[in-house]
Amino acid sequence: MHVGHLLLGRPWQFDRNATHDGYKIAYSDQIRISRECKLREEQLSIQKKVRKENMSENKQKKEKYEIECSEEKREKEKLLVLLYKDVYFTNEFHPSFPCEVDSLLQEFIDVFPDEVPHGLPPLRGIKHQVDLISSCPIPNRPTYRTNLEETKEIQKQVNELLQKDFVMESLSPCSVPAILVPKKDGTWNMCVDSRAINKITVKYKYPILRLDDMLDELFCSCVFTKIDLKSGYNKIRMKEGDEWKTAFKTKYSLYEWLVMSFGLTNAPSTFMSKTLDKHVEHLHVVLNVLRENKLYGNLKKCSFCLESVVFLGFVVSSKGISVDEEKVKAIREWPTPKNANEVRSFHGLASFYRRFVKNFSSIAAPLNELVKKDVVFKWDD
Questions:
Q1: How far, in Å, CA of 128 to CA of 212, rounded?
Q2: CATH number for the domain running over 99-333
Q3: Which among 5, 61, 99, 164 is least surrounded, fewest beta carbons within 10 Å?
């Protein structure tokens, strides 16, 4: 490549308005640059004008469309009248409440909140304590196997308990596994398998009413109400110093209860009246006690002023006591027992209604023979 020198005189530089860059050894032609800038400005001006015309045209189309829609809507417009009435409570068991009950529920609306307030329950003069049998080894059970979905559900419910201050993280040497139990509505309820700790817990001898006596008290009653408490067990605090005995574990951590949990041993409403007026008085007293003790009802599971109600597996009405058809169905559809343990399970369920079966002991005698020690299990049709 040949390199040569070009001499540019001052008249050329003056005519072209050229600028010399000594560092780059270059000249810039200001006339050309000015011409290009002017051309660019003209292009931008034209684009801006076209954009403005398009926007104006779109705006006109939009206004025309809105006018057409408004006219069409006006032609088809109909007069709609909205009728409403105040509905404060609904209940899937008994949707039509007497007016006395409806006004009473309005008065105690705070007793039936959608969500239970967070925080520990108030001191009630009673705390749940766990006294262990001396010299017994402290249980430390492994967690149960769960799939990914079950693991997430357990941790989700544990996080909710942490937010409510019902549990806290623990360093306890004692632990039992958490487990999911299916509910009737298809959801899950996290429970704690406390069987290991219950085995070494001192059992308290509280006087508990017999079921027969409780059913006898319902005699001549005509109006029944059933109130379900939200997290009833969690409304009693644990005794200070006993929290570590309630520890349970998940796959991620160890926690202990600050309130009484469902499943612990020693962890112990239905009421009735003869007339509606008397029943409303009783209901007022019960709801007032719940309010004073900051206990909360689950309205969806409550039933008010019914002529019959399922109570502890029996159907109670003004006509007396009868069996619950759901339990009878379970007895009829029970699969054929394959060993002595399954026979015991069936016998226990069937014995629940023995008061309604004449000569029940004689009928169930063959079952009793099958569960005896050293008897070979053989089920004959």
A1: 28
A2: 3.10.10.10
A3: 5
Domain positions in the chain: 99-333, 334-380
pLDDT in tens, 192-235: 998 999 899 988 776 767 777 777 777 777 888 888 887 766 77
The residues with which 349 forms a beta bridge, in sequence order, are: none
Nearest to 130 by CA among 269, 228, 225, 266: 266
Claim: this prediction has a pTM higher than 0.90: no
Beta strand ranges found along the chain (DSSP E): 18-21, 26-29, 167-169, 176-182, 188-192, 223-226, 248-249, 254-257, 270-273, 303-306, 308-311, 314-317, 320-323
Per-residue pLDDT tens digits for 323-360: 888 888 888 888 888 888 888 888 888 888 888 888 88
SS3 content of the chain, % helix, strand, coil (to 5): 40, 15, 45
Beta-strand relationship, 223-226 and 303-306: antiparallel
Helix (H, G, I), strand (E, B) or coil at 348: helix
| Angle between helix 340-351 and 325-332 (nearest 10) | 150
How many residues are there in the chain?
A: 381
pLDDT, tens digit, for every residue of 268-300? 455 667 788 888 888 888 888 888 888 888 888
